Amino acid sequence: MEGKITILPQKSVIKASPSFRLHFPPCDRRFGSLRSTAVAATITILGSGSAGNCAFIETPRLRLLIDAGFSGKQIAMRLASIGRKLEEVSAVLLTHEHHDHTQGLPVLCKRYEIPVYANRLTAEAVQEEMPELKQWRVFQTGHAFELGDVLVESFTVPHDAHDPVGFLLRHECGNVGVLTDLGHCTRLVLERVRPANVLMLETNHDPRMLQDASRPWSLKQRILSRFGHLSNEAAAEVVTQLASGGLRHIFLGHLSRECNRPELAHRAVTAALHNADARHVRVHVTSQDAPNPTLHVGAAPDAPAQSCGAVGGFDSLPEARRSPNIAVAEQSTATVRNKTAVA
User: Fold this and answer.
1) What is the CATH number of the domain that holds 34?
2) pLDDT in tens, 125-181
3) Which single residue of 30, 44, 228, 248 could bond 223 by disulfide (Cβ 3.0 to 4.6 Å)?
4) CA distances for 134 relative to 18, 67, 76, 86, angstroms
5) Can you give the residue range of the structural domain that contains 40?
6) Does residue 4 sit within a domain?
């Protein structure tokens, strides 16, 4: 059902073209106090690889999927393995329109009416392939907006899609960076993701394995191009430039089954961290076949930190640094507030 569109501030938001209509569910109560918990935030990579990518982030006021690259059934099963249901998901946040990031959307949107957040070009590209989707929320790349208690900052990444983005998700207990598909890491990308305490980083291929693979040369050229995918060595260079005391965990994702091995990706990135004197950073290799163990990020006040991968001591977003140069995609019936934040 189509509903009223409210997007503020108007001057900072991309307007949809006449051929592209935004649809809202009649009532959206997905944001708010979800549960009482000692853990301030958790991150679970439900799966990552060339055939599918999906991550789940939970805070006291948000349950967020980043991409939906598996079937709806698979996403439901993987959520169930960590005690969660699709009915509980607040929103889906899309990096870009490729099938390995979007194939579960029809089930998530039609059956569960989960809203999808994407920039306009990504939303238009997805809707061309999936015209039945009606749960769009459009944001402007380079601007920030709030989902529950998370501030979402988006930025352009170099990849062969319409308007691919990376994300920095800011929460009071820590910042999560998302770099899933990119051919190279620009200075802009490095600066935007530098505050991350937890980083999801692509390690798509080993160059030698890719060269030896029985793939068309045109596909190899695409992968190796500056708008293709990061190799293990390229990801290691990114890690070297981002290594700091604030970065605590790196999830290596989007590994090619044919052109990479988990041990190769882990070795390349770990060696780079050691050379950068950043041995405190823990490296986790993701799998396309099963979720990673859940990472607990920080703990709520007066509660002990979790013993399994807990990360504490992260800086919160200072109020003094907030500015009005932010586009807030506001739902007419949700509790996403029009606030200012870091540009």
Assistant:
1) 3.60.15.10
2) 999 999 999 889 999 999 999 999 999 999 999 999 999 999 999 999 899 999 989
3) 228
4) 15, 17, 20, 17
5) 10-321
6) no
